[in-house]
Structure to design on (533 residues):
């Protein structure tokens, strides 16, 4: 029941991710990315990770992508839909590096993607999560006990980002 | 899942879809008659008894008009926007419980489409997608007014989501759960002996902030700046006519219903019985078997839920024809400089109180 749905969603997500990269207008790129995020949330949800699915939809599809689309619409980037030119040396370097990265990733997947190299599942199996009292309790239990310091550091990082954005924006106004 | 589970699920989906789609024409009629009543006019009263057939006439008119696409519009996205406009609010409805459970034979059928242990997050996840049809419509129409309407709509929804989220977090602290069913059963008790233990009595400030925020989220007056007629003609759906306009109109009412259902569930006891009606049910407790009594209770809960949502819809209409529209800077001022700090202070106060005296 689960696998076919995941497979369909995976194909949809892959197609949309490709469209995001290759579509001409920035706004349709952004909308493909939105639907891709929702599809990704769907994969998490069907796999039983409802909490991560909801967070994926709220944070990425609901918040970050709204800002993306918003800024694209504000900047009116319709003029930027020109053809990509493959003549400059920059394009050559870009293709070289991204192609190299693609080959390296493919090699890693072929080399290590077999069953024996899959990471062993941790203590949090589906039964364990049900026993603890749901995804939310399991995740927040781990987050606020074992990963407490890291959590605080990440929030500090976000605070730094907000403060620096404010400083940068303020300087232009003055 | 067995055949029984599948058919129960299908019936529940049909019920929710039927109620939320079938109520829209009645709501439009109610809105127009209510508006007329408040403005001392007559309103639509010619088609059918009390004008009740007026929405049907409107729908026939809208669907039989010519469906056009403006020459300068982006064809695909222009048509996509109204098509997806009702998806988000309808999907969010799936996680909202409308009754406890029915007992049919040996099966226990919970009256909720998706039983999730983080139902509130699922509702928020889908509600967060409500902004895209507006942005898409405004952008694809290739019209300055539409574009301005879409920008206003999306910035206002993003801004008020913060106050809404903070008000919600303070309620989550009180309930200690993300499960909407547990929230309802928490509220289905009495407070100080004479009040129901509803969210509105536990945290009235969060209730008020949430109420203001859902008005902004659903683009209803006094926050209907995205479609402010006197400034933007019709805002994001200016270039839409006939059936496509009808779809936007439809989605707006479904979104209102979804927001009301969520609000009721968090602050007004959800499907818990209306206070003072429990004794009527208790008259039947000796006559019926426990299973049948549970079924009767569940039906009464569904009726209470629909009644509460109806009251909330009346409130929406009432506010719309009572308050004038905000200016755009006033809207942003209210959202960021007033509601956001108040919601933050309220959240901290609630957290401190809970830390000191417990829930």
């Amino acid at each position: 029941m689960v696998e076919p749905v995941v497979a369909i969603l995976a194909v949809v997500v892959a197609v949309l991710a490709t469209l995001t990269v290759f579509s001409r207008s920035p706004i349709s790129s952004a909308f493909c990315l939105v639907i891709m995020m929702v599809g990704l949330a769907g994969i998490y949800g069907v796999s039983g990770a409802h909490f991560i699915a909801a967070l994926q939809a709220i944070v990425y599809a609901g918040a970050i992508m709204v800002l993306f689309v918003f800024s694209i619409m504000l900047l009116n980037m319709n003029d930027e839909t020109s053809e990509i030119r493959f003549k400059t040396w920059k394009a050559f370097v870009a293709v070289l590096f991204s192609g190299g990265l693609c080959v390296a990733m493919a090699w890693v997947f072929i080399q290590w993607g077999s069953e024996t190299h899959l990471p062993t599942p941790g203590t949090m199996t589906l039964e364990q999560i049900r026993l603890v009292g749901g995804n939310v309790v399991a995740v927040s239990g781990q987050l606020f006990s074992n990963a407490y310091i890291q959590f605080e550091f990440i929030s500090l990082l976000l605070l730094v980002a907000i403060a620096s954005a404010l400083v940068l924006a303020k300087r232009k106004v003055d | 899942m067995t055949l029984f589970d599948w058919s129960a699920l299908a019936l529940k989906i049909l019920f929710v879809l039927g109620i939320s789609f079938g109520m829209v024409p009645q709501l439009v009629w109610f809105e127009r008659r209510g508006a007329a009543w408040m403005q001392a006019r007559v309103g639509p009263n010619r088609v059918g008894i009390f004008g009740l057939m007026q929405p049907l006439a409107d729908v026939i008119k809208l669907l039989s008009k010519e469906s056009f696409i403006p020459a300068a519009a982006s064809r695909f996205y222009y048509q996509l926007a109204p098509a997806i406009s009702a998806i988000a609010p309808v999907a969010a409805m799936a996680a909202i419980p409308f009754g406890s459970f029915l007992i049919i034979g040996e099966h226990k059928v919970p009256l909720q489409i998706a039983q999730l242990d983080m139902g509130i997050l699922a509702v928020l996840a889908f509600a967060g997608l409500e902004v895209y049809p507006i942005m898409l419509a405004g952008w694809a129409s290739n019209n300055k007014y539409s574009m301005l309407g879409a920008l206003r709509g999306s910035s206002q929804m993003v801004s008020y989501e913060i106050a809404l989220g903070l008000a919600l977090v303070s309620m989550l602290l009180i309930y200690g759960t993300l499960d909407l069913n547990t929230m309802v059963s928490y509220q289905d008790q009495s407070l100080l002996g004479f009040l129901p233990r509803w969210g509105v009595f536990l945290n009235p400030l969060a209730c008020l902030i949430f109420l203001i925020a859902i008005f902004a989220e659903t683009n209803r007056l006094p926050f209907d700046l995205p479609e402010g007629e006197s400034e933007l003609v019709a805002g994001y759906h200016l270039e839409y006519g006939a059936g496509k306009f009808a779809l936007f109109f439809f989605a707006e009412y479904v979104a209102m219903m979804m927001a009301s259902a969520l609000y009721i569930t968090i602050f007004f006891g959800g499907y818990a019985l209306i206070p003072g009606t429990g004794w009527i049910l208790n008259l039947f407790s000796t006559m019926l078997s426990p299973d049948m009594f549970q079924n009767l209770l569940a039906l009464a809960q569904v009726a209470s839920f629909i009644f509460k949502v109806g009251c909330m819809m009346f409130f929406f209409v009432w506010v719309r024809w009572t308050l004038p529209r905000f200016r755009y800077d006033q809207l942003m001022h209210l959202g960021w400089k007033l509601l956001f700090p108040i919601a933050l202070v309220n959240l901290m106060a609630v957290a401190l109180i809970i830390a000191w005296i417990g829930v």
